[in-house]
Design goal:
Helices cover 22% and strands 29% of the residues. The chain has six helices and 17 strands.
Amino acid sequence: MEEVSRVGELPTLWGLDPIQLHARYWAALGVQVVRQGEPSQIVPHAELYLLMDPRPLMLFPLWRLTRALNWIKPKVLLVRLRDRRERMTNYRPTADAAGRFTGFASEASDDPRMQRVGLTPEVEVARLWQSAPDAFTGWRRMRRYTASHARMTMSLDGRVFDQRRRSDIALFVSDLQRTWRHPNAVIGRARRNRGWVWHDPSSVIDATAELSGAVWVGAGRTIGGGTTVVGPRVLWDDPGKRPEPEGIQWLEIEPVDAREER
């Protein structure tokens, strides 16, 4: 398994790495991602706060939860998120006492395909979660802070990715392109070129290039004439021309309806 040890090792698109793109996607729906131990400021203008562990990236249909949030109005909606993709089996080499290779043995993958997340409209609940040293303490704090009748639990199918794995990051970005039709809602550098093609202002796309499907083109990239690009495909920022990421203007966000995103 090839792991990413530092966020700085990740490529960027429009100045944003995949973890930041994940946060922008949820921001476009009016939801701020809140992770344990993350130093980011919790903004009071978000409609909801998505309480997550530090490790995963997630995509799921928010609209399936909005009825409970709007009608029952719990302080905390606990969601058991299930990823039904087939799990990959890892194999490790084995050796005898003399150190001679004897074969391979399968071992369970630690893919986080079952995750528990929380949704809350309460800023104080989000702060309790963010300051918790671990998930167990975070959930215990919420149970103490909210009465049992103010909590609700639901199960939902979705997609869960491990941000430490390059293969999972690639899968996440590909799924994000299929899901997110309007990245310009929270990313000022994303400009529509044609169809579902979005590009950076500093990129160059020849008028004779053939682009189909969801294609995202980063800063400093060039697509020459006669080139064919089929999406979903990301052309990451040229590292030498990587722009500074822009802040999220929460007061200017018009949350995109989750059904449209689906």
